[in-house]
Amino acid sequence: YMRSVVNLLARIREDIGWDIEIMHDVHERLSLADTLRFTKELEPFRLFFLEDSLPPDQTDYYRILREQTTVPFAMGELFTNPMEWKRMIQNQWIDFIRVHLSDIGGLTPAKKLANFCEAYGVRTAWHGPNDISPIGAVAQMHLDLSIHNFGIQEFSGFTKEEQEVFPGCPTMKNGYVY
């Protein structure tokens, strides 16, 4: 798995170049040792971030990773309460917080989390999978526009059926969501 990703990123940089940002989601599949080896191999490709390389119950290991690699880290899709992310943010072990707004209680807790992150230089990258509703996507976008530490917004778009049920769904054009 790791070798195939390294080869893929090398090919992307070779064929497409450096004018695009690359993110990769590990989905908590690696051990600490594998993650450390993997991030060292990924450093030359200058990722925008590496996401969820370790499971939420191993967040303290990000201290070790932060001390040994320059790869930016994103974490949090599976987080549900502040005790899971507090130390990671305070210690700047991650660069992006990736929580799902509905999993942490909605807009008010997300706004508080964004403000907490801002104090430590951590940017947002809210989780926006393809099962989020247009209402949820618009809520995330409004939140993005109201914070100073917005990083990037995950956006999957909507099917024709969803667009029929929710007229005026957000749409993507040239890398921007309208």
Give the biggest sheet: 5 strands, parallel
Order of helices and strands: HEHEHEHEHHEHHEE
Mean pLDDT over the residues: 96
What is the 3D shape?
A: globular
Protein architecture, described:
By secondary structure, the protein is α/β, with parallel strands linked by helices. It is 43% helix and 10% strand. Strand 6 and strand 7 form a beta hairpin. The model has no long low-confidence stretch (mean pLDDT 96).
Keywords:
five-stranded parallel β-sheet; 8 helices; alpha/beta; 178 residues; two-stranded antiparallel ribbon
Concise synopsis of the structure shown:
This protein is 43% helix and 10% strand. The chain has 178 residues and is an alpha/beta fold. The chain has a five-stranded parallel β-sheet, with helices on one face.
Write the layout of secondary structure elements.
Layout: H1 2-15, E1 23-25, H2 32-42, E2 49-51, H3 62-68, E3 73-75, H4 82-90, E4 96-97, H5 101-104, H6 107-119, E5 123-124, H7 134-145, H8 160-165, E6 172-173, E7 176-177
Parallel strand pairs: 1-2, 2-3, 3-4, 4-5
Antiparallel strand pairs: 6-7
